[in-house]
Amino acid sequence: MTRLTAPPPSEVMIEAHEVSKVYGTVRALDSVSISARRGTVLALLGHNGAGKTTLVGILTAALPPTSGRAAVAGFDVASRPREIRQRIGLTGQFASVDGQLSGRENLVLLARLLGAGRKAARARADELLELFALGEVATRRAQTYSGGLRRRLDLAASLVGHPEVIFLDEPTTGLDPSSRINLWEIVEGLVAEGTTVLLTTQYLDEADRLADSITVLSSGAVIASGTAAELKASVGQRTVTVTLDGADDPALAVAALREAAMEPVTGRQDGAIVIPIAASRDIAAVVRALDNVGIEAAELSFGEPSLDDVYLTLAEQPARLASPSLALGATV
Amino acid sequence: MSATTTTTSTPSIPQWDGSSMFHQIRVLTGRSLRALVTDPGVVLFGLLQPVIVLFMLTQVFSKMGPPPHFPAGISYLDFVLPAVLIDNAVQSAVQSGVGLVEDLKNGIVARLRSLPIVPSSLLIARSIANLVRSAVQAVIILVLAVTVLGYSPHGGLAQVAASVGLTLFISWSLGWAFIAAGAWLRRAEPMQNLAIIAVLPMMFASSAYIPIADLPAWLGAVARVNPLTYAINATRALALGIPGAGDVLPALLFGGIIAAAGATLAVYGFRRPM
Question: Does the ipTM exceed 0.95?
Fold first, then answer.
Protein backbone atom coordinates (compact mmCIF):
# COMPACT_ATOMS: atom_id res chain seq x y z
CA MET A 1 0.00 0.00 0.00
CA THR A 2 1.30 3.45 -0.86
CA ARG A 3 0.36 6.61 0.91
CA LEU A 4 -1.03 9.56 -0.90
CA THR A 5 1.25 11.99 0.86
CA ALA A 6 4.61 11.23 2.39
CA PRO A 7 4.83 12.82 5.81
CA PRO A 8 7.45 15.51 6.32
CA PRO A 9 9.69 14.85 9.34
CA SER A 10 8.05 17.55 11.43
CA GLU A 11 4.60 16.23 10.67
CA VAL A 12 1.86 16.43 13.25
CA MET A 13 1.17 12.77 14.02
CA ILE A 14 -1.66 13.18 16.53
CA GLU A 15 -4.22 15.90 16.23
CA ALA A 16 -7.58 16.54 17.81
CA HIS A 17 -9.51 19.68 16.96
CA GLU A 18 -12.36 20.71 19.26
CA VAL A 19 -13.34 17.12 19.87
CA SER A 20 -16.42 16.51 22.03
CA LYS A 21 -17.99 13.25 23.13
CA VAL A 22 -21.42 13.20 24.71
CA TYR A 23 -23.04 10.16 26.30
CA GLY A 24 -26.69 11.05 26.89
CA THR A 25 -26.44 14.04 29.19
CA VAL A 26 -22.82 13.44 30.17
CA ARG A 27 -20.22 15.45 28.35
CA ALA A 28 -17.21 13.11 28.53
CA LEU A 29 -15.08 15.39 26.36
CA ASP A 30 -15.70 19.08 25.87
CA SER A 31 -14.07 20.65 22.83
CA VAL A 32 -10.63 19.16 23.40
CA SER A 33 -7.78 20.13 21.11
CA ILE A 34 -4.35 18.50 21.23
CA SER A 35 -1.48 17.96 18.88
CA ALA A 36 1.79 16.02 18.91
CA ARG A 37 4.59 16.03 16.37
CA ARG A 38 6.53 13.03 15.16
CA GLY A 39 8.99 11.62 17.68
CA THR A 40 7.54 13.42 20.68
CA VAL A 41 5.64 12.33 23.78
CA LEU A 42 2.37 14.01 24.66
CA ALA A 43 1.07 13.27 28.13
CA LEU A 44 -2.60 13.51 29.03
CA LEU A 45 -2.79 14.15 32.71
CA GLY A 46 -5.92 13.80 34.79
CA HIS A 47 -7.83 11.86 37.40
CA ASN A 48 -10.12 8.92 36.72
CA GLY A 49 -13.08 10.18 34.74
CA ALA A 50 -11.21 13.17 33.32
CA GLY A 51 -11.78 11.86 29.80
CA LYS A 52 -8.34 10.46 29.02
CA THR A 53 -9.48 7.01 27.93
CA THR A 54 -12.37 8.45 25.92
CA LEU A 55 -9.93 10.62 23.99
CA VAL A 56 -7.68 7.61 23.37
CA GLY A 57 -10.74 5.72 22.12
CA ILE A 58 -11.51 8.48 19.63
CA LEU A 59 -7.91 8.79 18.43
CA THR A 60 -7.61 5.03 17.91
CA ALA A 61 -10.81 5.08 15.82
CA ALA A 62 -12.63 2.89 18.33
CA LEU A 63 -15.19 5.55 19.32
CA PRO A 64 -16.76 8.13 17.02
CA PRO A 65 -16.55 11.72 18.31
CA THR A 66 -19.85 13.52 18.78
CA SER A 67 -18.33 16.60 17.17
CA GLY A 68 -14.94 17.90 16.17
CA ARG A 69 -12.30 16.19 14.09
CA ALA A 70 -9.23 14.12 14.82
CA ALA A 71 -6.41 12.69 12.75
CA VAL A 72 -3.59 10.28 13.45
CA ALA A 73 -0.54 9.90 11.18
CA GLY A 74 -2.31 12.26 8.79
CA PHE A 75 -5.45 10.10 8.47
CA ASP A 76 -8.86 11.21 9.64
CA VAL A 77 -10.34 8.95 12.34
CA ALA A 78 -13.80 9.06 10.82
CA SER A 79 -12.95 8.27 7.20
CA ARG A 80 -9.67 6.32 7.30
CA PRO A 81 -9.78 4.02 10.36
CA ARG A 82 -8.03 1.16 8.55
CA GLU A 83 -5.00 3.28 7.66
CA ILE A 84 -4.82 4.46 11.26
CA ARG A 85 -5.03 0.93 12.66
CA GLN A 86 -2.15 -0.12 10.43
CA ARG A 87 0.04 2.52 12.03
CA ILE A 88 -0.83 2.54 15.71
CA GLY A 89 -0.15 0.45 18.76
CA LEU A 90 -2.47 0.51 21.77
CA THR A 91 -1.80 -0.52 25.33
CA GLY A 92 -4.87 -0.19 27.47
CA GLN A 93 -5.32 0.12 31.18
CA PHE A 94 -5.76 -3.62 31.47
CA ALA A 95 -3.30 -5.96 29.86
CA SER A 96 -5.11 -7.37 26.86
CA VAL A 97 -3.42 -10.57 25.85
CA ASP A 98 -4.81 -14.07 25.39
CA GLY A 99 -4.16 -15.93 28.63
CA GLN A 100 -4.62 -19.30 26.93
CA LEU A 101 -1.72 -18.62 24.58
CA SER A 102 1.95 -18.34 25.48
CA GLY A 103 3.68 -14.98 25.26
CA ARG A 104 5.29 -15.98 22.00
CA GLU A 105 2.04 -17.29 20.52
CA ASN A 106 0.32 -14.01 21.40
CA LEU A 107 2.89 -12.00 19.47
CA VAL A 108 2.92 -14.40 16.52
CA LEU A 109 -0.88 -14.26 16.35
CA LEU A 110 -0.89 -10.47 16.12
CA ALA A 111 1.88 -10.40 13.52
CA ARG A 112 -0.03 -12.94 11.42
CA LEU A 113 -3.20 -10.85 11.67
CA LEU A 114 -1.25 -7.80 10.53
CA GLY A 115 -0.27 -9.72 7.42
CA ALA A 116 3.14 -11.17 8.27
CA GLY A 117 4.03 -14.60 6.95
CA ARG A 118 4.74 -17.40 9.43
CA LYS A 119 8.48 -16.92 9.34
CA ALA A 120 8.37 -13.12 9.57
CA ALA A 121 5.82 -13.37 12.39
CA ARG A 122 8.07 -15.67 14.43
CA ALA A 123 11.08 -13.46 13.80
CA ARG A 124 9.19 -10.37 14.96
CA ALA A 125 7.90 -12.20 18.05
CA ASP A 126 11.41 -13.30 19.03
CA GLU A 127 12.75 -9.78 18.47
CA LEU A 128 10.15 -8.33 20.84
CA LEU A 129 10.58 -11.11 23.42
CA GLU A 130 14.24 -10.23 23.58
CA LEU A 131 13.67 -6.47 23.72
CA PHE A 132 11.28 -6.92 26.63
CA ALA A 133 13.36 -9.59 28.38
CA LEU A 134 10.51 -12.08 28.10
CA GLY A 135 12.64 -14.87 26.61
CA GLU A 136 12.54 -17.05 29.69
CA VAL A 137 8.75 -17.06 29.94
CA ALA A 138 8.10 -17.02 26.17
CA THR A 139 6.58 -20.50 26.04
CA ARG A 140 4.56 -20.20 29.24
CA ARG A 141 0.87 -19.42 29.05
CA ALA A 142 0.24 -15.71 29.54
CA GLN A 143 -2.31 -16.38 32.30
CA THR A 144 0.55 -17.61 34.51
CA TYR A 145 2.43 -14.30 34.17
CA SER A 146 2.80 -11.82 37.01
CA GLY A 147 1.25 -8.36 36.60
CA GLY A 148 4.54 -6.84 35.51
CA LEU A 149 5.26 -9.58 32.97
CA ARG A 150 1.76 -9.30 31.54
CA ARG A 151 2.09 -5.56 31.16
CA ARG A 152 5.40 -5.99 29.38
CA LEU A 153 3.88 -8.54 27.05
CA ASP A 154 0.98 -6.18 26.44
CA LEU A 155 3.33 -3.37 25.47
CA ALA A 156 5.29 -5.76 23.25
CA ALA A 157 1.97 -6.78 21.66
CA SER A 158 1.22 -3.16 20.79
CA LEU A 159 4.58 -2.86 18.99
CA VAL A 160 4.27 -5.91 16.75
CA GLY A 161 3.37 -3.92 13.64
CA HIS A 162 6.17 -1.33 14.03
CA PRO A 163 3.63 1.38 14.81
CA GLU A 164 4.42 5.01 14.13
CA VAL A 165 2.14 6.17 16.92
CA ILE A 166 1.69 4.42 20.25
CA PHE A 167 -1.10 5.04 22.70
CA LEU A 168 -0.22 4.12 26.25
CA ASP A 169 -3.29 4.34 28.45
CA GLU A 170 -2.01 4.42 32.04
CA PRO A 171 0.76 1.95 31.22
CA THR A 172 2.33 1.81 34.67
CA THR A 173 -0.78 1.69 36.85
CA GLY A 174 -0.26 -1.13 39.33
CA LEU A 175 3.36 -1.77 38.39
CA ASP A 176 6.15 -2.02 40.92
CA PRO A 177 8.80 0.74 40.84
CA SER A 178 11.46 -1.20 38.97
CA SER A 179 8.97 -2.34 36.32
CA ARG A 180 7.88 1.28 35.90
CA ILE A 181 11.41 2.47 35.30
CA ASN A 182 11.99 -0.43 32.92
CA LEU A 183 8.92 0.55 30.93
CA TRP A 184 9.94 4.21 30.87
CA GLU A 185 13.30 3.26 29.41
CA ILE A 186 11.63 1.23 26.67
CA VAL A 187 9.36 4.17 25.82
CA GLU A 188 12.34 6.52 25.70
CA GLY A 189 14.09 4.13 23.33
CA LEU A 190 11.08 4.05 21.01
CA VAL A 191 10.80 7.82 20.98
CA ALA A 192 14.50 8.12 20.14
CA GLU A 193 13.75 6.00 17.06
CA GLY A 194 11.06 8.42 15.93
CA THR A 195 7.92 6.86 17.40
CA THR A 196 5.26 9.28 18.55
CA VAL A 197 3.69 8.49 21.91
CA LEU A 198 0.48 9.58 23.57
CA LEU A 199 0.63 8.72 27.21
CA THR A 200 -2.21 9.02 29.68
CA THR A 201 -1.29 9.00 33.31
CA GLN A 202 -2.29 9.97 36.79
CA TYR A 203 1.33 10.07 37.81
CA LEU A 204 2.93 13.45 37.53
CA ASP A 205 6.47 12.14 37.79
CA GLU A 206 5.78 9.93 34.80
CA ALA A 207 4.62 12.87 32.67
CA ASP A 208 7.51 14.97 33.95
CA ARG A 209 10.03 12.32 32.96
CA LEU A 210 8.66 11.24 29.58
CA ALA A 211 6.58 14.03 28.08
CA ASP A 212 7.63 16.78 25.71
CA SER A 213 4.31 18.44 26.25
CA ILE A 214 1.53 17.93 28.74
CA THR A 215 -2.19 18.49 28.48
CA VAL A 216 -4.12 18.53 31.73
CA LEU A 217 -7.69 17.27 31.47
CA SER A 218 -10.39 17.78 34.06
CA SER A 219 -14.00 16.66 33.61
CA GLY A 220 -13.49 16.29 29.88
CA ALA A 221 -11.99 19.73 29.29
CA VAL A 222 -8.44 20.91 28.80
CA ILE A 223 -7.52 23.06 31.78
CA ALA A 224 -3.87 23.59 30.89
CA SER A 225 -1.30 22.59 28.34
CA GLY A 226 2.33 23.22 27.62
CA THR A 227 5.73 21.83 28.41
CA ALA A 228 6.46 20.74 31.96
CA ALA A 229 8.58 23.88 32.34
CA GLU A 230 5.80 26.13 31.04
CA LEU A 231 3.28 24.60 33.37
CA LYS A 232 5.62 25.03 36.27
CA ALA A 233 6.29 28.63 35.27
CA SER A 234 2.56 29.31 35.20
CA VAL A 235 2.42 28.50 38.88
CA GLY A 236 5.29 30.75 39.85
CA GLN A 237 9.00 30.60 39.45
CA ARG A 238 9.72 29.06 42.80
CA THR A 239 7.94 27.68 45.78
CA VAL A 240 8.44 27.28 49.49
CA THR A 241 7.07 24.08 50.96
CA VAL A 242 6.19 24.18 54.62
CA THR A 243 5.46 21.11 56.71
CA LEU A 244 3.82 21.83 60.04
CA ASP A 245 4.19 20.13 63.34
CA GLY A 246 1.20 17.85 63.96
CA ALA A 247 0.06 20.08 66.82
CA ASP A 248 -0.22 23.22 64.72
CA ASP A 249 -3.41 24.20 62.90
CA PRO A 250 -2.88 24.32 59.10
CA ALA A 251 -5.90 26.60 58.66
CA LEU A 252 -4.32 29.14 60.98
CA ALA A 253 -1.06 28.99 59.00
CA VAL A 254 -2.89 29.42 55.69
CA ALA A 255 -4.82 32.38 57.04
CA ALA A 256 -1.62 34.00 58.23
CA LEU A 257 0.06 33.50 54.86
CA ARG A 258 -2.92 34.97 53.01
CA GLU A 259 -2.79 37.90 55.41
CA ALA A 260 0.76 38.47 54.18
CA ALA A 261 -0.51 38.65 50.56
CA MET A 262 0.72 35.20 49.67
CA GLU A 263 -1.24 32.45 47.90
CA PRO A 264 -0.66 29.23 49.79
CA VAL A 265 -1.74 25.97 48.13
CA THR A 266 -2.88 23.06 50.28
CA GLY A 267 -4.06 19.57 49.56
CA ARG A 268 -0.86 17.61 49.22
CA GLN A 269 -1.05 14.12 50.56
CA ASP A 270 1.66 14.80 53.12
CA GLY A 271 -0.28 17.85 54.34
CA ALA A 272 2.45 20.31 53.35
CA ILE A 273 1.59 23.86 52.32
CA VAL A 274 3.10 25.13 49.08
CA ILE A 275 3.64 28.85 48.68
CA PRO A 276 4.64 30.28 45.28
CA ILE A 277 7.14 33.11 45.73
CA ALA A 278 8.70 35.65 43.40
CA ALA A 279 12.19 35.79 44.88
CA SER A 280 14.25 33.88 47.40
CA ARG A 281 14.09 36.69 49.95
CA ASP A 282 10.36 35.98 50.24
CA ILE A 283 11.31 32.92 52.28
CA ALA A 284 11.83 35.28 55.16
CA ALA A 285 8.33 36.67 54.64
CA VAL A 286 6.90 33.18 54.90
CA VAL A 287 8.74 32.52 58.16
CA ARG A 288 7.64 35.88 59.57
CA ALA A 289 4.00 35.32 58.63
CA LEU A 290 4.01 31.97 60.41
CA ASP A 291 5.87 33.38 63.38
CA ASN A 292 3.18 36.08 63.78
CA VAL A 293 0.67 33.36 64.67
CA GLY A 294 3.14 31.38 66.74
CA ILE A 295 3.74 28.60 64.27
CA GLU A 296 7.17 27.21 63.65
CA ALA A 297 7.59 25.07 60.51
CA ALA A 298 8.71 21.53 61.28
CA GLU A 299 10.27 21.40 57.86
CA LEU A 300 10.79 24.09 55.28
CA SER A 301 12.13 23.59 51.79
CA PHE A 302 12.67 25.84 48.84
CA GLY A 303 12.73 24.80 45.21
CA GLU A 304 11.44 24.73 41.70
CA PRO A 305 7.73 23.91 41.50
CA SER A 306 6.85 20.30 40.78
CA LEU A 307 4.03 19.12 38.57
CA ASP A 308 2.13 18.27 41.72
CA ASP A 309 2.07 21.94 42.54
CA VAL A 310 0.90 22.73 39.01
CA TYR A 311 -1.91 20.25 39.24
CA LEU A 312 -3.06 21.42 42.62
CA THR A 313 -2.88 25.06 41.62
CA LEU A 314 -5.00 24.43 38.53
CA ALA A 315 -7.48 22.46 40.55
CA GLU A 316 -7.71 25.31 43.05
CA GLN A 317 -9.18 27.65 40.45
CA PRO A 318 -12.90 27.30 41.17
CA ALA A 319 -14.13 28.69 37.84
CA ARG A 320 -12.43 25.86 36.03
CA LEU A 321 -13.21 23.24 38.58
CA ALA A 322 -16.32 21.65 37.12
CA SER A 323 -16.45 18.50 39.19
CA PRO A 324 -16.02 17.79 42.87
CA SER A 325 -14.23 14.56 41.90
CA LEU A 326 -11.19 16.71 41.33
CA ALA A 327 -11.24 17.76 44.95
CA LEU A 328 -7.85 18.26 46.48
CA GLY A 329 -6.23 15.32 48.05
CA ALA A 330 -8.00 12.91 45.71
CA THR A 331 -4.75 12.16 43.94
CA VAL A 332 -4.17 8.43 44.14
CA MET B 1 24.77 14.68 6.28
CA SER B 2 21.51 15.54 4.59
CA ALA B 3 18.27 15.86 6.44
CA THR B 4 16.60 13.21 4.33
CA THR B 5 18.94 10.41 5.39
CA THR B 6 17.94 10.86 8.98
CA THR B 7 14.23 10.70 8.28
CA THR B 8 14.06 7.83 5.80
CA SER B 9 14.83 5.36 8.58
CA THR B 10 11.40 6.09 10.05
CA PRO B 11 8.85 3.82 8.42
CA SER B 12 5.96 5.74 6.90
CA ILE B 13 4.58 2.67 5.17
CA PRO B 14 3.28 -0.11 7.42
CA GLN B 15 5.59 -3.08 7.80
CA TRP B 16 2.92 -5.49 6.61
CA ASP B 17 0.14 -4.82 4.23
CA GLY B 18 -2.70 -6.17 6.38
CA SER B 19 -4.44 -9.47 5.74
CA SER B 20 -7.54 -10.68 3.92
CA MET B 21 -10.66 -11.53 5.90
CA PHE B 22 -10.21 -15.18 4.93
CA HIS B 23 -6.70 -15.15 6.38
CA GLN B 24 -7.93 -13.42 9.54
CA ILE B 25 -10.65 -16.03 10.03
CA ARG B 26 -8.12 -18.84 9.51
CA VAL B 27 -5.64 -17.40 12.02
CA LEU B 28 -8.33 -16.63 14.61
CA THR B 29 -9.98 -20.05 14.21
CA GLY B 30 -6.59 -21.64 14.78
CA ARG B 31 -6.29 -19.59 17.94
CA SER B 32 -9.71 -20.67 19.26
CA LEU B 33 -8.97 -24.32 18.45
CA ARG B 34 -5.60 -24.20 20.11
CA ALA B 35 -7.27 -24.43 23.50
CA LEU B 36 -8.70 -27.82 22.45
CA VAL B 37 -5.16 -29.10 21.93
CA THR B 38 -3.32 -27.41 24.78
CA ASP B 39 -6.15 -27.86 27.25
CA PRO B 40 -7.90 -31.22 26.65
CA GLY B 41 -9.93 -30.49 29.79
CA VAL B 42 -12.08 -28.21 27.63
CA VAL B 43 -13.21 -31.12 25.47
CA LEU B 44 -13.55 -33.49 28.43
CA PHE B 45 -15.66 -31.01 30.36
CA GLY B 46 -17.83 -30.40 27.32
CA LEU B 47 -18.37 -34.15 26.96
CA LEU B 48 -19.32 -34.58 30.59
CA GLN B 49 -23.01 -33.77 30.40
CA PRO B 50 -23.88 -35.60 27.15
CA VAL B 51 -21.95 -38.71 28.21
CA ILE B 52 -23.49 -38.77 31.69
CA VAL B 53 -26.96 -38.39 30.18
CA LEU B 54 -26.19 -41.16 27.70
CA PHE B 55 -25.02 -43.67 30.31
CA MET B 56 -27.62 -42.84 32.94
CA LEU B 57 -30.62 -42.91 30.60
CA THR B 58 -29.60 -46.10 28.85
CA GLN B 59 -29.03 -47.82 32.21
CA VAL B 60 -32.30 -46.56 33.71
CA PHE B 61 -34.51 -47.31 30.74
CA SER B 62 -33.08 -50.73 29.98
CA LYS B 63 -34.23 -51.77 33.48
CA MET B 64 -37.63 -50.10 33.17
CA GLY B 65 -38.67 -51.35 29.80
CA PRO B 66 -39.94 -49.08 27.00
CA PRO B 67 -42.87 -46.65 27.46
CA PRO B 68 -46.11 -47.51 25.58
CA HIS B 69 -45.51 -45.42 22.45
CA PHE B 70 -41.89 -46.42 21.99
CA PRO B 71 -41.14 -47.42 18.37
CA ALA B 72 -41.08 -51.20 18.06
CA GLY B 73 -37.88 -53.11 17.43
CA ILE B 74 -35.58 -50.28 18.44
CA SER B 75 -33.28 -50.31 21.47
CA TYR B 76 -33.36 -47.36 23.83
CA LEU B 77 -29.70 -46.66 23.08
CA ASP B 78 -30.42 -46.33 19.36
CA PHE B 79 -33.39 -44.12 20.19
CA VAL B 80 -31.60 -41.75 22.55
CA LEU B 81 -28.19 -41.41 20.91
CA PRO B 82 -29.23 -38.84 18.25
CA ALA B 83 -30.75 -36.76 21.07
CA VAL B 84 -27.52 -37.01 23.07
CA LEU B 85 -25.62 -35.74 20.03
CA ILE B 86 -28.05 -32.83 19.77
CA ASP B 87 -27.51 -32.14 23.49
CA ASN B 88 -23.77 -32.14 22.81
CA ALA B 89 -24.34 -29.77 19.89
CA VAL B 90 -26.27 -27.36 22.11
CA GLN B 91 -23.64 -27.46 24.89
CA SER B 92 -20.93 -26.71 22.38
CA ALA B 93 -22.99 -23.83 20.97
CA VAL B 94 -23.29 -22.36 24.48
CA GLN B 95 -19.51 -22.58 24.84
CA SER B 96 -18.95 -20.53 21.68
CA GLY B 97 -20.89 -17.70 23.31
CA VAL B 98 -18.96 -18.12 26.57
CA GLY B 99 -15.69 -18.03 24.60
CA LEU B 100 -16.65 -14.73 23.02
CA VAL B 101 -17.52 -13.26 26.42
CA GLU B 102 -14.11 -14.34 27.72
CA ASP B 103 -12.44 -12.64 24.77
CA LEU B 104 -14.36 -9.47 25.56
CA LYS B 105 -13.47 -9.70 29.23
CA ASN B 106 -9.75 -10.39 28.97
CA GLY B 107 -9.30 -7.47 26.58
CA ILE B 108 -8.23 -9.42 23.53
CA VAL B 109 -11.19 -7.94 21.66
CA ALA B 110 -10.02 -4.44 22.55
CA ARG B 111 -6.61 -5.36 21.18
CA LEU B 112 -8.06 -6.82 17.96
CA ARG B 113 -10.16 -3.70 17.48
CA SER B 114 -7.02 -1.60 17.38
CA LEU B 115 -5.75 -3.73 14.48
CA PRO B 116 -6.73 -3.37 10.82
CA ILE B 117 -8.95 -6.45 10.81
CA VAL B 118 -12.65 -7.02 10.08
CA PRO B 119 -14.42 -7.36 13.46
CA SER B 120 -16.72 -10.12 12.15
CA SER B 121 -13.65 -12.30 11.55
CA LEU B 122 -13.50 -13.02 15.25
CA LEU B 123 -17.19 -14.00 15.35
CA ILE B 124 -16.87 -16.28 12.31
CA ALA B 125 -13.74 -17.85 13.79
CA ARG B 126 -15.64 -18.56 17.02
CA SER B 127 -18.44 -20.13 15.00
CA ILE B 128 -16.09 -22.40 13.03
CA ALA B 129 -14.20 -23.39 16.16
CA ASN B 130 -17.54 -24.34 17.75
CA LEU B 131 -18.34 -26.52 14.76
CA VAL B 132 -14.99 -28.31 14.93
CA ARG B 133 -15.30 -28.83 18.65
CA SER B 134 -18.83 -30.11 18.31
CA ALA B 135 -17.67 -32.57 15.62
CA VAL B 136 -14.74 -33.82 17.72
CA GLN B 137 -17.04 -34.41 20.69
CA ALA B 138 -19.67 -36.10 18.52
CA VAL B 139 -17.06 -38.53 17.20
CA ILE B 140 -15.92 -39.33 20.74
CA ILE B 141 -19.50 -39.95 21.86
CA LEU B 142 -20.15 -42.19 18.85
CA VAL B 143 -16.97 -44.18 19.48
CA LEU B 144 -17.94 -44.61 23.14
CA ALA B 145 -21.48 -45.64 22.19
CA VAL B 146 -20.30 -48.20 19.64
CA THR B 147 -17.46 -49.69 21.69
CA VAL B 148 -18.83 -49.56 25.23
CA LEU B 149 -22.60 -49.72 24.77
CA GLY B 150 -22.85 -51.55 21.46
CA TYR B 151 -24.59 -48.88 19.38
CA SER B 152 -25.53 -50.25 15.95
CA PRO B 153 -28.30 -48.19 14.33
CA HIS B 154 -30.38 -49.68 11.52
CA GLY B 155 -29.77 -46.81 9.18
CA GLY B 156 -26.22 -47.83 8.33
CA LEU B 157 -23.09 -45.73 8.02
CA ALA B 158 -24.25 -43.29 5.32
CA GLN B 159 -27.48 -42.57 7.19
CA VAL B 160 -25.66 -42.06 10.48
CA ALA B 161 -23.23 -39.72 8.73
CA ALA B 162 -26.17 -37.71 7.36
CA SER B 163 -27.66 -37.64 10.85
CA VAL B 164 -24.43 -36.37 12.38
CA GLY B 165 -24.09 -33.82 9.56
CA LEU B 166 -27.54 -32.43 10.36
CA THR B 167 -26.64 -32.37 14.07
CA LEU B 168 -23.55 -30.30 13.30
CA PHE B 169 -25.62 -27.91 11.21
CA ILE B 170 -27.92 -27.43 14.21
CA SER B 171 -24.87 -26.87 16.43
CA TRP B 172 -23.52 -24.27 14.02
CA SER B 173 -26.82 -22.39 13.84
CA LEU B 174 -27.40 -22.47 17.61
CA GLY B 175 -23.78 -21.34 17.98
CA TRP B 176 -24.73 -18.09 16.26
CA ALA B 177 -27.61 -17.60 18.70
CA PHE B 178 -25.21 -17.89 21.64
CA ILE B 179 -22.52 -15.78 19.95
CA ALA B 180 -25.21 -13.12 19.55
CA ALA B 181 -26.14 -13.50 23.23
CA GLY B 182 -22.46 -13.12 24.17
CA ALA B 183 -22.05 -10.04 21.98
CA TRP B 184 -25.01 -8.35 23.68
CA LEU B 185 -24.75 -9.61 27.27
CA ARG B 186 -20.95 -9.44 27.45
CA ARG B 187 -20.91 -11.24 30.78
CA ALA B 188 -20.36 -14.91 31.48
CA GLU B 189 -22.90 -15.36 34.31
CA PRO B 190 -26.07 -14.46 32.40
CA MET B 191 -24.76 -16.62 29.54
CA GLN B 192 -24.43 -19.64 31.81
CA ASN B 193 -27.82 -18.93 33.37
CA LEU B 194 -29.37 -18.63 29.94
CA ALA B 195 -27.84 -21.97 29.02
CA ILE B 196 -29.24 -23.68 32.11
CA ILE B 197 -32.65 -22.03 32.01
CA ALA B 198 -33.15 -22.38 28.27
CA VAL B 199 -31.33 -25.54 27.27
CA LEU B 200 -32.22 -28.04 29.97
CA PRO B 201 -36.03 -27.59 29.76
CA MET B 202 -35.81 -27.37 25.97
CA MET B 203 -34.19 -30.81 25.89
CA PHE B 204 -36.67 -32.40 28.29
CA ALA B 205 -39.71 -30.76 26.71
CA SER B 206 -38.94 -32.40 23.39
CA SER B 207 -38.87 -35.82 21.80
CA ALA B 208 -35.30 -36.28 23.07
CA TYR B 209 -35.62 -38.89 25.80
CA ILE B 210 -39.05 -40.47 25.38
CA PRO B 211 -41.64 -40.29 22.59
CA ILE B 212 -43.85 -37.19 22.73
CA ALA B 213 -46.96 -39.37 23.05
CA ASP B 214 -45.59 -40.68 26.35
CA LEU B 215 -45.02 -37.21 27.80
CA PRO B 216 -47.69 -35.65 30.06
CA ALA B 217 -50.19 -33.80 27.88
CA TRP B 218 -48.99 -30.26 28.67
CA LEU B 219 -45.33 -31.20 28.16
CA GLY B 220 -46.26 -32.93 24.92
CA ALA B 221 -47.90 -29.71 23.75
CA VAL B 222 -44.69 -27.78 24.45
CA ALA B 223 -42.63 -30.50 22.78
CA ARG B 224 -44.69 -30.29 19.60
CA VAL B 225 -43.79 -26.62 19.09
CA ASN B 226 -40.21 -26.99 20.35
CA PRO B 227 -37.86 -26.55 17.38
CA LEU B 228 -35.43 -29.02 18.96
CA THR B 229 -38.07 -31.72 18.52
CA TYR B 230 -37.81 -31.33 14.75
CA ALA B 231 -34.03 -31.49 14.88
CA ILE B 232 -34.09 -34.59 17.07
CA ASN B 233 -36.82 -36.32 15.05
CA ALA B 234 -34.95 -35.65 11.85
CA THR B 235 -31.53 -36.83 13.04
CA ARG B 236 -33.15 -39.86 14.69
CA ALA B 237 -35.10 -40.79 11.58
CA LEU B 238 -31.93 -40.57 9.51
CA ALA B 239 -29.80 -42.63 11.88
CA LEU B 240 -32.45 -45.32 12.48
CA GLY B 241 -33.85 -45.47 8.98
CA ILE B 242 -37.38 -44.99 10.37
CA PRO B 243 -40.16 -42.70 9.11
CA GLY B 244 -39.84 -39.07 10.16
CA ALA B 245 -37.39 -37.84 7.54
CA GLY B 246 -40.09 -35.29 6.77
CA ASP B 247 -38.75 -33.34 9.75
CA VAL B 248 -35.40 -32.80 8.01
CA LEU B 249 -36.66 -29.83 6.02
CA PRO B 250 -38.24 -28.02 9.02
CA ALA B 251 -35.03 -28.72 10.97
CA LEU B 252 -32.89 -27.19 8.22
CA LEU B 253 -35.25 -24.25 7.95
CA PHE B 254 -35.23 -23.69 11.70
CA GLY B 255 -31.43 -23.88 11.76
CA GLY B 256 -31.11 -21.49 8.84
CA ILE B 257 -33.39 -18.89 10.45
CA ILE B 258 -31.58 -19.13 13.82
CA ALA B 259 -28.20 -18.78 12.11
CA ALA B 260 -29.23 -15.80 9.99
CA ALA B 261 -30.89 -13.98 12.88
CA GLY B 262 -28.09 -14.89 15.30
CA ALA B 263 -25.31 -13.77 12.96
CA THR B 264 -27.05 -10.48 12.22
CA LEU B 265 -27.67 -9.74 15.88
CA ALA B 266 -24.12 -10.83 16.75
CA VAL B 267 -22.54 -8.41 14.26
CA TYR B 268 -24.69 -5.54 15.54
CA GLY B 269 -24.10 -6.38 19.19
CA PHE B 270 -20.39 -6.78 18.68
CA ARG B 271 -20.13 -3.46 16.87
CA ARG B 272 -21.22 -1.51 19.94
CA PRO B 273 -18.30 0.26 21.62
CA MET B 274 -16.80 -1.44 24.64
Answer: no
